[in-house]
Amino acid sequence: MFPYLLLPVLFLCPASCTTTRRHAEPLHQDLVTQLPGQPSVGFRHYASYTTVDEKNGRALFYWFFEATSGSDEKPLVLWLNGGPGCSSVGYGATQEIGPFLVDGEGYALKFNPYSWNKEANLLFLESPVGVGFSYSNTSSDYDILGDSFAANDAYSFLHEWYKKFPSYRNRLLHCWRELCRKICTRVGRADL
Ligand SMILES: *[C@@H]1O[C@H](CO)[C@@H](O)[C@H](O)[C@H]1NC(C)=O
Q1: Which of the two ends of the chain, N or C, has the fewest CB atoms closer than 10 A to its terminal CB?
Q2: Is 0.90 surpassed by the pTM of this model?
Q3: CA dihedral for 23, 72, 39, 49, sign (positive or negative)
């Protein structure tokens, strides 16, 4: 395992950490229950890896924020930072439009009053592999990265993600990207 694969483990506290909490329904396996320095909020957020290619061992990392209110009614926004090669967690989620911005000192998170999750459910995807926490266990994958490759992985990601969040399957999907139009085109054509 590459050393950087350990980072998300430190960064996220999986649902299993909170043995003292009692819920009527089982907690979603990807629910983030606590982040260091996170302000308390009334919406849920989720993060994890989704495998997009089992043979080569490719997995994309996502961070998903429900809307602050009425999440059942609001659309789903898939956010991809551009570059290409910019992290959607490092930029979009924590410096631009996400609900938790890293504070000036870098020690804690502060609530972003202009977060887009006031209007939509926000899904940040780290794409393609090699960006942010997303990775491949097959080194040669990194030699063939390109728009089509990234678009196909994003498509596979969304297909798998809907299995984890089936209630979003029929939700209006807005795909926002800084540059990589091909990815949104591929996802938009998806028969998921
Ligand atoms: C990549 O390899 C690590 C270490 O063997 C393994 O734990 C992980 O599940 C693999 N990832 C995928 C997507 O298969």
Answers
A1: N
A2: no
A3: positive
**What pLDDT score does 23 carry?**
53
Would you say the C-alpha torsion 130, 133, 183, 54 has a positive or negative sign?
positive
Ligand 1 pocket at CB < 6 A: 1, 51, 57-59, 137
Question: Residues 60, 129: contact at Cβ < 8 Å?
Answer: yes
Six token digits for residue 179: 């540059």
Question: What separation in Å is there between the alpha carbon of 10 and the centre of ligand 1?
Answer: 17
**DSSP for residue 78:** E
> From residue 109, how far is each of 36, 42, 74, 189 by CA, in Å?
8, 15, 25, 36
pLDDT tens per residue across span 96-112: 999 999 987 878 899 99
